[in-house]
Description:
There is one protein chain. This protein is of the alpha/beta class. The chain has one domain (about 5-245): TIM Barrel (Alpha-Beta Barrel), CATH 3.20.20.70. The protein contains ten helices and eight strands. It has helices at about 20-25, 40-50, 75-80, 95-100, 105-115, 130, 135-145, 175-195, 210-215, 235-245, and strands at about 5-10, 35-40, 55-60, 85-90, 120-125, 155-160, 200-205, 225. The longest helix is centred in the last third of the chain and has 19 residues, at about 175-195. It is globular.
Amino acid sequence: MKKLAAGNWKMNGNRAALAEVAALLAAHPAPACEMLLCPPTTLLSQMAALAAGSALQVGGQDCHPKASGAHTGDISAVMLADAGASHVILGHSERRADHGESDALVLAKTEAAIAAGLIAVVCLGETEAQRDAGDTLAVIGAQLDGSVPATATSANLVLAYEPVWAIGTGRTPTLAQIAEVHAFLRARLTAHIGAEAAKTRLLYGGSVKPSNAAEIFAVPDVDGALVGGASLKAADFGAIVAALAAA
């Protein structure tokens, strides 16, 4: 499988920030891994146009489970695809926490994304309290069971493990902890989709930066990263891309 460096811009960026995308493409025109950036919806079509014909793919940060309708302020997977997206992030812990998203809702969104021809990047992760209680594997196992549809394959699904306590904090799990979770996710996914699980990318996310990327990418079953703040700058994200390409 080809490894994936994905960047989540979250609620950051304006049109001027697209200069960082141009700089990234100039510095990494043909990396040995896949590159994905998920900007705010306001920038999606512009970033897609800028990335057309390049090694960069563009995705959304969320979608509604319905294809259309009276859902003010929402955006559907069909609309994301029409704007030039190839992927969509779903079930991010910030959505689960800030918007009360359940596994059932994430499942419905994932089904909608797959039906629209998008690759769903489904996020899983435990809180600090759940980690301290020794519940990490039970929590992420339940999230996987409830969020991944039967229609998932290695071609339309990416899983991203993001421990909630490591997002934006500068803290990361130990390499052994990352290895334990990713091995567990590979086995759990195999129970769901069989042999396809061996080819499905498992990303690590949570304070990934140039200084720790290489050691994280050396961990078994880590097939890339879902990067937050470090994806906003071409130099930082490019360094992570280079580390992944060399892994």
